[in-house]
Amino acid sequence: MKTIDILKKLRSSRLRPTKQRVEIAKFLFEREKTFHFTVESLNKLLTKKSNSKIALATIYNTVHAFKAAGHLSEVEVRGNKTYFDTNVSNHHHFYDSETSELIDIDANDIIIQKLPKAPNGKKIKNVEVFINLKN
After folding, report:
1. Which CATH number covers residue 63?
2. The model's pTM
3. Which of 24, 26, 106, 135 lies at a C-alpha separation of 20 to 30 Å from 123?
């Protein structure tokens, strides 16, 4: 992703393209593979990579703005850990609880033959499959 695309992404998210936000966006979106992260892990990675310190609040706000704009998806693992995913397409995950790693599974690799009826007044928004791994 080129810098011009990063600037468009920021502006479409209604974020002023500050130096820190551009750096966060480049780190997230200038990669070939999907990237799964928590805000805390992203903070650590950016601190290692960057010469300048980016405030945790800036990282948090930028990540949530990208999520709201549809550039990131949020993945909750067992209700106690929240990851963000640069792959916003419909897909599933392996979860390795020993390493806290999420690994993508293509939606076409899972076949769901039957779903239960949603409770009255509700409809199914989407289906996410988590396959937990262990050694």
Report:
1. 1.10.10.10
2. 0.86
3. 106
